[in-house]
């Protein structure tokens, strides 16, 4: 919570350390007072949010009651600018204090109720004697204050050296206790978070895992919200600045950093603070939060997502142990996230293998079924040839055998064509092809078939349309589309063939449209019509002979020419196929 004067006060239940640690620091403060011959000694611990918290005060009950547990912003300017350096300490004489510094000390300090010394160079109640407690890496861990020297005199180099000799080991003890508490707090939070993570049901997919982790860690991390966000997660409030925020978190992962988001400033322990982007402020408002901690999740050089934690407006600021704990937890989440992705890939691969197996089985069954009929015709008529002396009957058997052999030959050609057009390594010769002439000739060739079937065939072909492509593949494409339209359209129906120029994506091309009024294709089957060996399950379609290879070949020919093929159909009303081909081959094929 925050007092009216702006200082952060941590409730006793959430104060720094525990009773035993505070008792030890109080004993150290009393020992320092005795060893250095000062009445009052105070110890502050530095929090990572930039605030100093009083954790022990010896020799002044009034100061202890007023200041213990209170935190103030870190401000060292007056110490550096106004104080005299003496053997690792800073002495600030009262006469150097300006109005701004006095106001600061009145707000965050405590002035003892004691008279000024009447000795020459005597101690003044406004004098300050401060030592910054630094660890081995030179990082500030706390502050030590001496007040009301029993001698009544201001410090001298000799008296300060004596203080260091007497109490130097205690300075290191304070630093060690503060660092152990920071580490212990981090370990406690990590342990709680890991226990929560262990309760998440194994075997979840990525999306389910992220949701389960978020829910499990809210209570463990003592925060208002926890969200485990993958790089692909869509957050409406961040869409305007998505690129900027993503790059920010990528940069933090590279430097193994973090981001603390507050309403005015966004900061980390490694970087200068910046003004909080509006999108992050909107995110805080949307969820009713006062601040947030963003820790990148990654593995190796890959940024995978973000661990985002939020706190209510009246909650304390983020401290170093919490940030470090979140970083450790983020590493655990990265492992789980990679495992979930691996599991999803395994599931997808297994599904693909099952689909491939099913496809192979269906392919074999389809081929066996399609070959059975013509083979049966061959065997039956071979037997009849040995039994029928009549020449006319023998001729009918020969004709039946011829039709069966041709059907087998057609299937073999389709299989070979599918293998050819599906081979990515095959080299093809491209040349100008008069598509107008090809379509016109194909329509004329199939006109008798349409007439025998009682169908009308209407054509609208713009002349002189040339594309650069493979002659054989394009011929098979046109023939397959026209043949299918005639095959699946009952007597009395109509087939419309249109060929016209069309520009797609600024590229000149030709569009071939073949529309019929036939039996149509069920909506659920439209996505499968270009799959090799696919046959509709509807009896009306099954009665027409075929291997299910024609449209698969057509789609591969179109793809090989860098074109597009689309299909629209209404069951019982008809089907329309539309193929667009570029007029010139792709530059990579030249």
Automatic annotation (TrEMBL):
Question: What are the protein's UniProt keywords?
Answer: Kinase, Phosphoprotein, Transferase, Two-component regulatory system
The keyword Phosphoprotein belongs to this UniProt entry's keyword annotation? yes
| Residues annotated as domain Histidine kinase | 366-585
Q: Which SMART domains match?
A: HATPase_c, HisKA
Annotated EC: 2.7.13.3
Location in the cell: Cell membrane
Which top EC class applies here? transferase
Domain of life (superkingdom): Bacteria
What reaction does this enzyme carry out catalytically?
ATP + protein L-histidine = ADP + protein N-phospho-L-histidine
Name this protein carries in UniProt: histidine kinase
Can you name the source organism? Nocardioides furvisabuli
Tell me the classification of the organism that encodes this protein. Answer: Bacteria, Bacillati, Actinomycetota, Actinomycetes, Propionibacteriales
